[in-house]
Amino acid sequence: MSRGSHRKDGKGPAGRLAGLSTGGPSQRQLRVAEEVRRVLAEVFARADFRDPELAGVSITVTEVRISPDLKHATAFVACLGRTDVESLLPALKRVAPWLRTQLAHTLRLRVAPELHFQPDTALDYAMEVDALLKRPEVQRDLDDHEDE
């Protein structure tokens, strides 16, 4: 059998590649994304921004998702005690090049990823669901269901 040929048993280069799942991020993507999240969290904790809109704002990076080529990173952010995190997105976009420089100094990557920011609405959604579950009519339905 020649090198690189297809084997029916799934072994060899072609079989191994065919068996890879393309559904989720790779281990490398997950590792780099977590490192980016950690570095951004440290930078936000220091809060030494020159942008007046970010002065005194406590920004939490809840998750980072990175593209397969590691060139783009989307950081999901939340602000403790504030619901208007979307109003901070333009300011975060302005400081993104500086944040990318901070990443480049800290991470061991050929190219620091370009940063994009999205509001993390998961906590708001969870609080909304919790409030719905505590409504009297929902509690009554849940109690009726338990009796069955």
Automatic annotation (TrEMBL):
InterPro entries (UniProt xref): KH_dom-like_a/b, RbfA, RbfA_dom_sf, Ribosome-bd_factorA_CS
Segments of this protein annotated with the region Disordered: 1-28
GO cellular component: cytosol
Organism from which the protein derives: Acetobacter estunensis
Record's protein name: Ribosome-binding factor A
Subunit composition and interactions: Monomer. Binds 30S ribosomal subunits, but not 50S ribosomal subunits or 70S ribosomes.
Entry-linked NCBIfam families: PRK00521.2-5 (NF001802), rbfA (TIGR00082)
Record keyword Cytoplasm present: yes
HAMAP family per UniProt: RbfA
Predominant subcellular localization, coarse grouping: cytoplasm
Role, per record: One of several proteins that assist in the late maturation steps of the functional core of the 30S ribosomal subunit. Associates with free 30S ribosomal subunits (but not with 30S subunits that are part of 70S ribosomes or polysomes). Required for efficient processing of 16S rRNA. May interact with the 5'-terminal helix region of 16S rRNA.
Highest taxon listed in the record's lineage: Bacteria
Biological process according to GO: maturation of SSU-rRNA
Molecular function terms, GO-annotated: ribosomal small subunit binding
Location relative to the cell: Cytoplasm
Alphabetic keyword roster: Cytoplasm, Ribosome biogenesis
Membrane-traversing stretches: none
Family assignment from sequence similarity: Belongs to the RbfA family.
